[in-house]
Design goal:
Elements (H helix, E strand, L loop, with lengths): L1 E7 L2 H14 L5 E5 L6 H12 L15 E4 L6 E5 L11 H7 L5 E5 L12 E8 L6 E7 L7 H4 L11
Parallel strand pairs: 2-5, 2-6, 4-5
Antiparallel strand pairs: 1-7, 3-4, 6-7
Helix pairs in contact: 1-2
The structure holds adenosine-5'-triphosphate (ATP) and magnesium ion.
The site of adenosine-5'-triphosphate (ATP) has 18 residues, from helix 1 and helix 2.
């Protein structure tokens, strides 16, 4: 596994980081997003959608109430899921389990840690933290090395120096 620690100074940077990740991800990837309310997870998914389809994020909304929204315009299907309201559910809806295990689509889940036992073996895990002093976001991306070999080079501009991490 590789792990990258990044600093995002503003919303646009978070979208740009998501877009770079989206452009490298192979189909069939499961992306787990973790981090508090308002940390930037939905903004990041806009970026991933843009990495799959340049204009694809224009209508992207938060799936908090619908649980899953799917986008078909890009180089592969993007399922955007939010586990937040599934906290108390005894089980996940079948269509969500299918999306998670799809080998064709990219499935991105906000609040993914709520249902960690449904994660597939291969996961790209992205954690968001808000720096209370600066309100910048600390974003860490953990991924299997062979999955996106060019990712760390492409994210060079955002990699945090050890003192900032
Ligand atoms: N560096 C940054 N990265 C991302 N968002 C930022 C940043 N700085 C400020 N923001 C603002 O923070 C908010 C992040 O909202 P977003 O909906 O992406 O959060 P979320 O993590 O999806 O929250 P929720 O858990 O409620 O779904 C937006 O209003 C965005 O403009
Ligand atoms: Mg959100």
């Amino acid at each position: 596994m590789a792990i990258l620690h990044l600093i995002s100074p503003d919303t646009e940077s978070t979208i740009r980081i998501g877009r770079i990740l989206g452009s490298c991800l192979p189909r069939g990837t499961f992306v787990a997003l973790e981090g508090t309310l308002g940390a930037g997870k939905t903004q990041f998914v806009k970026g991933i959608a843009c990495g799959l389809d340049e204009g694809g994020w224009a209508g992207l909304r938060s799936p908090t109430f619908t649980l899953m929204l799917s986008y078909h315009g890009g180089r592969c299907v993007l399922h955007h899921v939010d586990f937040y309201r599934l906290n108390e559910s005894p089980e996940l809806p079948g269509e969500i389990l299918e999306a998670i295990n799809s080998d064709r689509a990219i499935t991105v889940v906000e609040w993914a840690d709520i249902w960690r036992d449904v994660w597939p073996k291969q996961v790209v895990r992205v954690c968001f933290e808000i720096d209370e002093d600066t309100s910048k976001r600390r974003i860490s991306i953990e991924f299997p090395d062979q999955l996106c070999p060019t990712l760390s080079k492409e994210l060079d501009d955002y990699v945090a120096q050890p003192a900032e991490a």
